[in-house]
Input
Amino acid sequence: MADPATTPRPFQIITKPIGPKCNLDCSYCYYLEKEKLYPGRHSFRMSDETLETYVRDYVAIHDRLGVPEIWFSWQGGEPTLLGLDFFRKVVEFQKQYGPAGKSIRNALQTNGTLLTEEWAAFFKENGFLIGISIDGPREIHDRYRVDKKQRPSFDTVMRGLGLLRDGGADFNTLTVVQRHNSRHPRTVYRFLKDQGAEFMQFIPIVERSVDGQSLAGAPQMDDEGIEAKVTPWSVLPNVYGDFLCSIFDDWIRQDVGKVFVQFFDVQLGLWAGAPAGLCWFAETCGQGLAMEHNGDLYACDHYVYPEYRLGNINDTPMDQLAFSPEQVKFGQDKKDTLPRYCRECEYRFACNGGCPKHRFLTTPHGEDGLNYFCASYKKFFAHAGPRLRTMANLVHQGRPASDIMEMLRREKEARSAPRKVGRNDPCPCGSGRKFKACCGATKGRAEAGEAVSAPHPPSS
Output
């Protein structure tokens, strides 16, 4: 029987066709410093030869693996610096090498400042999914997202977002959760909704520095005795937990099925017993690689360091690199190095220790490898767990998860007049259980000061 850990699986490559080059100078950007990997290099433009090799081999590998829809992900830096002609070549190569009947899609992450009507029309015509980076309204967004002359970028980003929206291009928003905007969760969430965002990603930022200037590497690379501190823009764990809880409370009351928040969608899947839809919360990793402009392939976007360079696709077949023993071990290490504290945690199914890049704290028992966001996740799971479990049960019953909104409305009515409902009457929230075993019991425990949580996923 084949070992699942070594069986080739589909993988995703976050592609940097212009390397770390960008027209913005965001304070918290961890990728700008990757120029140091290529000293003396002035051009970071992917050549036509490397692009063709990449598209041809990536499509062929995933066709062999039986992937029904093949996704290409383009990031940077700022990929639109390459100009439209580069992405016209992307589409041409995909049409040339794409097998008959196979769907090929593209996702492109942009700061939005260079977009034009022509870009928006191209994206719509070719089915690109555009992620646009925006951290909130003007006073929040401009705190860290500035250009090379330290000028604010909000107006140009909003212009780009408007072009995408008005041009009918598919887009989502990516918001970096940092020290400043993390304290304004509802302001950020409601602002994004007002802009027409129906798909949102909230990515917490934490980086470490030893000297206060350059960033520290991954914790697995730390020298003994290193004393790195988190940067001033890094989000604080408890504040990030509050951020998630506050947005969740808004979302679950009025936006389920209307607005899709990546973190909530991934967690709902996990609480329903499904595999993780995001590598951060999977048992193992290794399926999210990164490729630089010259074809250098790295283990992960968070591990673009010389120590994690797998090779170059122009010199070695891509599948040999992606399925190499080094990459398999990299992915398996996520599970094998999990501290006992995490292995015994009631929320392990929903977290699995988080991203290894963030495992630089020690557990209460003195073990290395505790995730910086452990407190964030525990706070969210305790707060949102009961609702996630209810939605998971709805899905298992063949009902839409959005039914939770009507249940919460009825629950609120039931709690406002509990004496009108007998203990053995059906609960007004619509759960199908008796009131004493549902909202009545929840209310009683809450009044007694007990924690009302549901740490374990429902059985499928």
